[in-house]
Amino acid sequence: MFSRTVKPDKVSPSPEPEAPLDFGHMPRHIAIIMDGNRRWAKQQGWMAIRGHSVGADVTQNIIQECVDLKIGALTLYTFSTENWKRSSAEVGGLMRLITKNLRDQLPRMQRDNVQIRHIGRRDNLPDYLLRQLDECVDSTLKNSGLVLNLALNYGGRAEIADTFRKLVGKVQDGLLRAEEVTEELIGRSLYTGDLPEPDLMIRTGGEMRISNFLPWQIAYAELWITPTLWPEFQPLELRQAIRDFQFRDRRVGS
Length: 254
What we know:
There is one protein chain. Helices cover 41% and strands 13% of the residues. It is an alpha/beta fold. β3, α4 and β4 form a beta-alpha-beta unit. It is globular and about 60 Å long.
């Protein structure tokens, strides 16, 4: 069903699909590359935006599953800095779809105590989306349940560049000494700096790359890649990814 990127002699025994989850050993932070909407739509003979719309429904199901499983943080690769290269019709449709989903799902997020955050650059995002995004972020700021990071207009290299510019500015202003710029400080200065780094990174659609998604933060994350396209990804498969995570022998660099 899925491919691992670790060597065969490092693979722990695969769990049975029906094995119960160990709720004492859950990932604190899950990151997901939600890939395959356009390929799925093409297979159905539909326009790409239809795939994105169905994928958005799947996204809500996965968010709800993470709420039910009491996952601490979930980061979703919603729209990358590279996605601006797509057609203006597809990009415009995506911007409107994201805005509508933010508006429609806000009451549900409030009910489930979800804290919504935006990670990425605000540049180029349409004003109507930013207004809705800001409303969601501000109105859920005090929620104490799942932290939902929407990686929107996000690029991992851009994030690192933004972080270094911020730290260089502090050095130039005399607020920070160059020798104080450590790996720990850089990590804390990233968009997700107050959260645990992802323990588990899931990619749907079968591609074997991270596509500029959280390159610093997933240095020691367990990778779980499935050929399932995002519109067909179900909570049951999320649970299987978590079960597999729980069976891994995590060495974290050792």
